[in-house]
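Hi V.,

You were right to ask for the full record rather than a summary. Here it is.
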Amino acid sequence: MKIRALATTVALLFAGAAQADVITLTFEGVGNQASVNNFYNGGTDSLGNSGTNYGIQFGTNSLGLIDADANGGNGGNFANEPSPSTILFFLSGTAILNYMPGFTTGFSFYYTSSTAASVNVYDGLDATGNLLGSIDLTANFNNNCTGDPTGRFCHWDIGSLAFTGVAKSIDFGGTVDNTGYDNITFGSTNPSGVPEPTTIALLGLGLVGAAVTRRRRSNI
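Predicted structure:
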């Protein structure tokens, strides 16, 4: 299933002592099909938008995508996102998020996916060091749901992991081009926000919707 998308983003976390506070990234404010880059790291996304500085940095393959129904038809082919109207997805290539200060306790998020995949948590930067745990994802994108009013990727589940130690990077590499994320949460096994009722119909199969005009495509 393809959900075309256009931009790129990277996730990298700040340096320092392990962060004890629970932090949730909703991606609201990230530009449509923009690389997230340093949006959460004291800088901007690829379109110049800035967010709260959590010391979290994303790579150029990490993209923000706005629900097409909330963006004049130009955006993603998804619906019922937990915190409307922007989500995260990875178009291709490396999909690593770094959090230099590190975080403890747990990691969680909402996801919609057209394929089974996995997300890995490491205690070193750039997916190095010890593997603290993995989160297995299932193909769930259209399970008993409809769009809002459009968007084929309309079902969201929670992915979560409790672990011991201090995590400093997340590898989403097994989910590129097929999976969308929202409410990525550090320090808790429960992402904040609740998915909206699945009560509307979807347009296409790709995450990036019809009005997108860019050279690369994504399954979301």
